[in-house]
Amino acid sequence: MIKVEKIIIPSASLGKSSPMPDIKNISYIHAGYEVTDRIEEDEKTYIGKGMISTMLPYTIQDQYNREKKNKAYSACVLENEYLRAVFIPELGGRLWSLYDKEKCCDLLYVNPVFQPANLGLRNAWFSGGVEFNVGIKGHNPLSCSPLWARIDKYEGGDILRLYEFERIRGVVYSINAYLPENSPVLYIKCIIENRDRQEKSMYWWSNIAVPETKGTRIIVPTDTSFLCLYNYDHYVVDKASIPIHDGIDVTYPDNISASKDFFYKIPKDSYKWIASANKYGNGLLHCSTRELKGRKLFVWGQGQGGRHWNEWLSEENSSYIEIQAGLASTQLEHIPMKGQSTWEWTEAYTALSCNASDIHSDYGKAISTIENYMLDRVGDPDKLTIPDLNALISSEIVYRGSEWGALEEEIRGEKISRYFDFERTFAPESSMWFDLAEKGRFPEPDITCEPESYVVGSFWEEKLEKLKEVNWYSLLHLGVVKYASGDFDGAKRAFEGSLELKPSPWAYRNLSMLYRNEFSDCEKAREYILKAFGLKKDSPYLCKEVAIQLTEDGGDEIWLEIFESLPNELKSIGRLRLYKAIALINLGRYREATEIVNKDFIMSDIKEGELSISSLWFRLYRRIYAEENGVDFSESDHDLIRLADSKYPLPKSLDFRMHD
């Protein structure tokens, strides 16, 4: 049975999307990698392949807050006598919870709140449940966006179908959930459709959050793992043995000190599964058909920073880990997907309940215990499938996603999915693109109006270039399309042409980003970002980029003057206050900086892996300690640093360090 009901979740506001296109601003997608000599040649085949250079055409979701209010979400609920599975289409189709009625417990980590934070490809991301990630290394661009949801009713049962068009890879993906009557297993069939003739680089990981409790053990049928660490601006891929690595049993997350990714290398002839078992032998078992060959464990680690991240994403004392399943061996890989092809596989989610002594003894015995349990409860995972149900009774759309799929069908002149129809929703963000595609016309709003959306690709470039009536707004978007295609000089000419017709903050800003991130011209970057800000001084987006530019190129005094001129609403933004503190420290005004950098400082958009707050704390308070003791500060004076850090320890509330 599938029903739609409202569930109430205390939620922070997601806010509006940024009007700024990504012009090499998203550092995550530009991070490099290195592999150690323990990685064999055949294991490197796809590492680093298929990476993207921009998040365009997506906008960035970075205006969320941390003030939570009750919000009602439409939830699609699959339920029988064993399980209750709750999916939320509005939140990227997230499997929010999976409740085991026999054990009276949640099999997944269920976040008690919705709290976006800066961990996603588009910035906003939230923890908990099962997230389905498609197309691009990282969290799904649609993690905090709605998916289409349809309930198909058959004589033999109901299927929930969640689906969307992913705009970067140009594919349709779907999550098809089936919970048979009298079954303790939830089946999810995932499908990726590339109806284009072009080969695409493809990616998929199902990220499964489970509770992290004392004595929880992660069991996978292998004794070898890739180990992925993040080292400032790049990833390091190494190997680790399982269960013992560096003298530690790493099958127990509470033994792991810092954040790590273990990508398990499961033998080709082994079943593909992963299990999380608490100290009593109970937990979650996930298995799949062989297409989903990768398995992973992510831990925040037991350090103060890792513990804080758990709570930052939820509430005090919250704690979770992730077990994951993917198409590749690691998440630094994209797999070639041929044109006009479809990939599909089936996953199974069920309760684990084994004898604790068998689970928490010899690792080989734990593997065989769970594998026998799986074969008895689920059957041969290679034969998993959602049955072909006969006699469709009804098909009802119960939640509407975007109309980008409908627009794609409009410009291709053909369907983009065998299974799903995409309808017009007449959303403001896509209406002007339908007008351009169908009628060859384009709007010209006031220069202060924030752009709502972007497109990429040769179709749109040609349409914009052939407009009979060119205006500042069409040239602005032409520049964005050209930038996304790698034509930086063409983008520059289009933005300059837009400014000639009508100066706008958006064209000035985009030129600034080109000069800063692609042409390495700091002087021009500063000139244009200040011109952009001068045309729209109430924009938090422009303020942030002004602050970054000025605190990096010696313009600290200018930034402090600008900050003091801002309205209180902008002055309260944590990121802008951080840059004020940086400017004060750069100028040696340490005591003033302590009014910002203290245990009560909050910056909502701190990024996963970002060390700005902790680095600023140490930079500031070590100098204050030196002043207090009448000595000059030196980075090489290790005794002074030790004494300063002892007197002024980094508060947990500011600790976002993930690594040793």
Tally of extended strands? Answer: 28
- Strand numbers in spatial order across the main sheet: 16-22-23-27-13-12-11-10-28
The rounded distance between the terminal residues' Cα atoms is 48 Å
In DSSP terms (H or I, runs of 4 or more residues), the helix count works out at: 17
**Class derived from helix and strand content:** alpha+beta
Strand content: 25-35%
Radius of gyration: 26 Å
Q: Show unreliable segments.
A: none
Share of helical residues: 25-40%
Q: Mean pLDDT, nearest integer?
A: 96
Gross morphology is: globular
Main beta-sheet strand count, sense and barrel state: 9 strands, antiparallel
Descriptors for this entry?
27% strand, single chain, 17 helices, 660 residues, nine-stranded antiparallel β-sheet, alpha+beta, eight-stranded mixed β-sheet
Structure description:
By secondary structure, the protein is of the alpha+beta class. Helices cover 28% and strands 27% of the residues. It has a nine-stranded antiparallel beta sheet with strand order 16-22-23-27-13-12-11-10-28, covered by helices on one side. It has an eight-stranded mixed beta sheet with strand order 2-18-17-21-24-25-15-9, with no helix packed on it. Strands 1-3-4-5-6 form a five-stranded antiparallel beta sheet, with no helix packed on it. Strand 12 and strand 13 form a beta hairpin. The two termini are 48 Å apart. The model has no long low-confidence stretch (mean pLDDT 96).
